[in-house]
From TrEMBL:
Broad class of enzyme this protein falls into: transferase
Protein name: polyribonucleotide nucleotidyltransferase
PANTHER family named among the record's database cross-references: POLYRIBONUCLEOTIDE NUCLEOTIDYLTRANSFERASE, POLYRIBONUCLEOTIDE NUCLEOTIDYLTRANSFERASE 1, MITOCHONDRIAL
Annotated organism of origin: Ceutorhynchus assimilis
Family (UniProt): Belongs to the polyribonucleotide nucleotidyltransferase family.
Record carries keyword Glycoprotein: no
Domain of life: Eukaryota
Length: 745
């Protein structure tokens, strides 16, 4: 027994010691909590945490700003894909549950990605992609899940920073981290990460992604004609704010990050094959690129012929060489030759100087049935833009979650961009638009939206179809769209134009030794260059911008210089456009829609509407005119043209006009005719053409009446009633038979 008690005491002491050790270890771990907080200059804090969720992923982080939280996971395969590019996929998904909502579709669950989700995914992708090694060919997926949305802080910038943290903490080779902020300007003051309410009062909505040493990786935003110097100031301040995000992510990475995995060295060509490729192609490629008489198709055909010839000779001389590597080696020589010629001669492959625009031509009012139309041609890029005006009933209504995050319930101006395959002399699928088309259309829409008056009485749909493409079709859509809007008579405050700025650098992997900025970018310059910077604006200032940067960061000096060159080019383009049409059309076209407001007295509304709105439905079917109720007695008519409006007015006039209404005296006794018997009473008329009025059961007799048939009342029967005027709210007649029967008694 004594031995058993000693054994039991020993077990208790052992368990107590183990519990104390576990507690000490827990305190130690919590004191090193895997989290960091970024304190912005305006007092708002961004918190990044890791180690709690999705621990099987290569990297996971949760970002929180206010009460908005986003979880980002990253996973990359361990074996390279056969492609020769980075197969990076970014999926940003809005979750209704995060906002305390239930999806409104039939299945009550999240379905395919919305336009806002796709645009945000592209935004995150452009921020992350430049910092991957050019030979990293491993399938990589970044998934952004909204955990909570407070309707105050937008989750898109939080997602960029959280994705940066997740990649930095993972074992995936990546040259980050990056930091991202949203920059607004309220009352001429720069605001970092403005709330949704502040953003409504801001004339700037700009997202900046940057890496260390104030190197800009991505820019995207829209503005209400912000001045160039104000935009440059905002970019400098925003870039500076990103540096503390980068510092905090680096601290988190040092303490809790995984060691970066080693990747397989990319196969390379032997020096002998590389030299053979160079000797066979370099001179011929250089001659083609210096033949300034060639257009896009002719240049591509010439380069294709050289490629076929060179690869065939290499195949005969080196039969064991990998054909894919040989093809990639040829592409590198073409790219290197293309870039070197720009540095040597300051002349581009189409013969233009670095700051020179392509030839521009414009035309408006193309087809009579269209409300507004224009074709804008810049070099071998051509877009056809059409404007359709419709009623406010045609406004685009956003899904509930996009309303929560953006604060926009509906859009009465939207631009649809189409890029058919024939625009680049190709065959392919024509159908629902892809992510690229959606992104280009959204950018062009941002560039034109500030020019649209807020009180315009129509919904505007602007379509832009690319007929030819050799670079910068989205900015051509801004130019053509502005012309089409003026042709439609939309009173825009100022025409807008857009231009793309390119960049070719001598980049050694760490810094830029030399560079050339290219104005009005060609397609081949976009493909072989280091930047595609699209800027749209009007005479007042900048309205939209988007920078797609292909190297791991640009110094602010180059960004500012590119903005200045874009501003100069924009002014030249606007001058050319004004020669075609310099202001919105004042004389209306015959087929232009019209809108009129009219008032209907309360007691006449049933005549206008009809039973269940049948009169208005019939009016729309016969004339195409839509009638909508604005207030109790105020209505608005939308007609596709003036003739339809005149016809609808006649119909409405007949509906509202009746025979002369006799003056009824308050307290007067009149003969009423029963026209309908209902459960609650009888419908009667006092004179011909009068809308039936209800004589309620409670006013039929001094006795309680459950149904008019109890009194033997039938349709067509006449009886006397007393008139007590109209109800001040509903406008309906107040009649009584009971007071007359009571008087007889």
């Amino acid at each position: 027994m004594h031995f058993c008690r000693e054994t039991q005491r020993f077990k208790q002491l052992y368990l107590l010691k183990r519990t104390l050790n576990d507690h000490i270890r827990y305190l130690s771990e919590t004191s090193r909590s895997p989290r960091t907080t970024v304190n912005f200059s305006n007092g708002r804090n961004l918190t990044l945490t890791t180690g709690q969720f999705a621990r099987l992923a290569d990297g996971c982080a949760v970002g929180t700003l206010g009460d908005t939280s986003v979880m980002v996971t990253v996973v990359s395969k361990t074996k390279p894909s056969p492609s020769n590019f980075l197969p990076l996929v970014v999926d940003y998904r809005q979750k209704s549950a995060a906002a305390g909502r239930i999806p409104t579709n039939f299945f009550r669950r999240e379905l395919g990605p919305s336009e806002r989700e796709i645009l945000t995914s592209r935004l995150i992708d452009r921020s992350l992609r430049p910092l991957f090694d050019e030979h990293y060919y491993y399938d990589t997926q970044v998934v952004c899940n909204m955990l909570a949305v407070d309707g105050i802080n937008n989750p898109d910038v939080i997602s960029i920073n959280t994705a940066s943290a997740a990649l930095a903490l993972s074992d995936i080779p990546w040259m980050g981290p990056i930091g991202a902020v949203r920059v607004g300007m309220v009352d001429e003051e720069v605001v970092i990460n403005p709330t949704r309410k502040e953003l409504n009062d801001s004339k700037l909505n700009l997202i900046i992604s940057a890496t260390k040493k104030n190197l800009v990786v991505m820019l995207e935003g829209n503005a209400d004609g912000i001045l160039l110097q104000d935009l440059q100031k905002s970019i400098k301040i925003g870039t500076k704010e990103t540096q503390q995000i980068i510092t905090q992510i680096e601290n988190l990475q040092k303490e809790f990050g995984k060691p970066k995995r080693s990747i397989q060295a990319a196969p390379t060509l032997s020096e002998e094959i590389t030299e053979a490729l160079r000797s066979l192609s370099s001179m011929r490629v250089s001659q083609i690129l210096q033949n300034y008489s060639l257009d896009k198709i002719e240049r591509d055909v010439a380069l294709g012929e050289v490629r076929t010839n060179v690869l065939e000779k290499i195949r005969h001389s080196f039969p064991d060489a990998d054909s894919n590597l040989v093809g990639e080696g040829y592409n590198k020589i073409v790219k290197q030759t293309f870039r070197e010629l720009i540095f040597e001669k300051d002349i581009r492959c189409d013969g233009r100087h670095l700051d020179e625009l392509r030839s521009i031509s414009c035309q408006v009012d193309l087809y009579k049935p269209l409300h507004g139309s224009a074709v804008f041609t810049r070099g071998q890029t051509q877009v056809l833009c059409t404007v359709t005006l419709d009623s406010h009933e045609s406004a685009m209504r956003l899904d509930p979650l996009s309303v929560v995050t953006s604060g926009v319930k509906e859009k009465n101006f939207f631009l649809h961009y189409e890029f058919p395959p024939f625009a680049t002399k190709e065959t392919g699928r024509i159908g629902p638009i892809g992510r690229r088309e959606m992104g280009h259309g959204a950018l062009a829409e941002k560039g034109l939206f500030p020019t649209i008056p807020s009180d315009f009485p129509f919904t505007i749909r602007l379509t832009s179809e690319v007929l030819e493409s050799n670079g910068s079709s989205s900015m051509a859509s801004v130019c053509g769209g502005s012309l089409a809007l003026m042709d439609a008579g939309v009173p825009i405050n100022s025409p807008a134009a857009g231009v793309a700025i390119g960049l070719v650098t001598k980049y050694n992997g760490e810094q830029i030794d030399d560079y050339r900025i290219l104005t009005d970018l060609l397609g081949i310059e976009d493909y072989m260059g280091d930047m595609d910077f699209k800027i749209a604006g009007n005479n007042k200032g900048i309205t939209a911008l988007q920078a797609d940067i292909k190297i791991s960061g640009l110094p602010l000096k180059i960004v500012m210089e590119a903005l200045q060159k874009a501003s100069d080019a924009k002014k030249k383009i606007l001058q050319i456009m004004q020669k075609c049409i310099d202001k919105p059309r004042l004389d209306k076209k015959e087929n232009m829609p019209v809108v009129e407001k009219f008032e209907v007295e309360a007691h006449k509304r049933p005549k206008l509407l009809g039973v269940g709105g049948t009169n208005l439905k019939k009016l729309f079917a016969e004339t195409g005119v839509q009638v909508s109720q604005l207030e109790d007695t105020m209505f608005q008519m939308f007609a596709p043209n003036q003739n339809a409006m005149d016809e609808a007015k006649e119909i409405i006039q007949k509906l509202l006009t009746t025979e002369r209404v006799p003056d009824l005296e308050f307290g007067g006794i009149y003969k009423a005719t029963i026209v309908e018997v209902r459960d609650i009473g009888v419908m009667v008329t006092l004179y011909a053409g009068m809308p039936p009025a209800l004589l309620h059961n409670s006013q039929l007799d001094t006795r309680k009446v459950g149904h008019p048939s109890a009194l033997g009342l039938e349709v067509g029967q006449e009886l006397q009633v007393k008139y007590f005027g109209r109800d001040p709210v509903s406008g309906l007649m107040r009649l009584s038979r009971k007071v007359l029967t009571a008087a007889k008694m």
